[in-house]
Amino acid sequence: MLDIVLPIAFGLVAVAVAMSFWRLLRGPSAPDRILALDTLNINTIALLVLLGIHLSSALFFEAALLIALMGFISTVAFCKYLLRGDIIE
């Protein structure tokens, strides 16, 4: 069962990565690009988790946690810069 589901999940997440990357390049405004970058980060985490399941390795789950933490911090920093014009007060 997992042999059938994993390739389908990889394909669907790859399509989601391509669509969010397209929005990142083409976004009409800066908030759209920040949301696309955050979505790209989430899709990358999903790919790492799927790869960890496929290869049965816990190392990918730890990498996904680190990328999630850095992605959250970068999204907050970008939004704060857009709203206030300064990151550190």
Structural notes for this entry:
With 89 residues, this protein is mostly helical. It has a single domain (2-84), classed as Helix Hairpins, CATH 1.10.287. The chain is built from 3 helices and no strands. Helix 2 (30-55) runs antiparallel to helix 3 (59-84). The radius of gyration is 15 Å and the shape is flat.
Based on the model shown, name its key terms.
89 residues, mainly alpha, Helix Hairpins
Average pLDDT, rounded to a whole number, is 92
Low-confidence stretches: none
Helical stretch tally = 3
Write down how many β-strands occur, each being a DSSP E stretch of 2 or more residues. 0
Proportion of residues in extended strands? under 5%
Q: Roughly how many Å is the radius of gyration?
A: 15 Å
Main sheet makeup: none
CATH top level?
Mainly Alpha
Looking at the overall shape, the CATH architecture is Orthogonal Bundle
**Remind me, CATH topology?**
Helix Hairpins
Structural class: mainly alpha
Count of spatially separate domains: 1
* Quaternary structure type: single chain
Order of helices and strands: HHH
| Helix content percent band | over 70%
First CA to last CA: what distance?
52 Å
Globular, elongated, flat, extended or rod-shaped: what is the shape? flat
Write the layout of secondary structure elements.
Blueprint: H1 2-26, H2 30-55, H3 59-84
Helix pairs in contact: 1-2, 2-3
